Amino acid sequence: MSRLEQMFDVRDQSVIVTGGASGIGRAYAEIMAAGGARVCIFDIDANGLDQTVADIAANGGDVWGMTVDVADRPAMAAAFDKVAEKHGKIDTVYANAGIDPGPGFMTPLGERNPDGAIENIPDEQWDRGIEINLSSVYTTVKNAVRHMKPRGEGKIIVTSSIAAEINESIVGTSYMPAKAAVNHFVRHMAMELGAYGIRVNAILPGPFITNIAGGRLRNKEDRAAFEAQSLIGRIGDVEDIKGLALLLASPAGSYMTGSLVVIDGGSLTRMT
């Protein structure tokens, strides 16, 4: 094996990806399985999970899945324990699960959207957005650390967003504070856990074509507003994120912790 191959070697790692049945989470699972890791995907979408597991396995990946709601803390603890029992360890965890926060107070065409106005946001929509986009990260990290700390090593990679750094009027209101809190949590966990050999980093994607918000960025009109922000004239495809996901899980990223890594085609640079 060459030195370059050694730097990105993830063979035999035990990996968990939450929200891995589609989109960015699926990309994480695909690249780690392609590298020889043993991957378990958690997702609430049982049908999507089965399809993703079948697709990755058909390409030779060592992958399996569990239907888990990341908001169900007892179920999450049990799922982590099951992976540790089956794989003998847990090396890398991608805390990726997230949900659509609902409409923003503006439309992509620049018109006011009453459904996203603060006085009209259903409380349950706000609570669920915070529960999945923020609190589930706490639950995921907590369970990862239970298994990593006794071994003195581990990698935790959290999917945040450039929405942590800006305010976007066409995105549901709960999303920005949730992701801003995720960024602070990642840095705080890096401070706490570095002494135990556990690295904690966040990936901050800009606009990517995924199933979030009903796959709205597949629509030309919705996509145009985000393409205009990109310095390279396009929004992201999930293939674009695989290299970064591999870096943070591999020896090549061994000196990185507490990092908030932006991958957005330059959108944040234009907006700030």
What's the topology here?
Elements: H1 3-7, E1 14-18, H2 23-34, E2 38-43, H3 46-58, E3 62-67, H4 73-87, E4 92-95, H5 123-148, E5 154-159, H6 175-193, E6 198-205, H7 212-215, H8 220-227, H9 242-249, E7 260-263, H10 267-271
Parallel strand pairs: 1-2, 1-4, 2-3, 4-5, 5-6, 6-7
Helix pairs in contact: 2-9, 4-5, 5-6
In short:
The chain is an alpha/beta fold and 272 residues long.
Can you offer a commentary on this structure?
The protein has ten helices and seven strands. With 272 residues, the protein is of the alpha/beta class. A seven-stranded parallel β-sheet has the order 3-2-1-4-5-6-7, with helices on both faces. α2 packs across α9 (242-249), α4 (73-87) packs parallel to α5 (123-148) and α5 (123-148) packs parallel to α6 (175-193). The longest helix is centred in the middle third of the chain and has 26 residues, at 123-148. The radius of gyration is 18 Å and the shape is globular.
Nearest-angstrom radius of gyration?
Answer: 18 Å
Order of helices and strands: HEHEHEHEHEHEHHHEH
Structural class computed from helices and strand pairing: alpha/beta
CATH architecture: 3-Layer(aba) Sandwich
**Count of alpha and pi helical runs:** 10
> Approximately how much helix is present in the residues?
40-55%
Note the main sheet. 7 strands, parallel
- What overall geometry do the principal axes of the alpha carbons give? globular
CATH topology: Rossmann fold
Question: Which CATH class applies here?
Answer: Alpha Beta
In round numbers, the mean pLDDT is: 94
Query: Which blocks of ≥5 consecutive residues have pLDDT under 50?
Result: none
Strand percentage lies at 5-15%
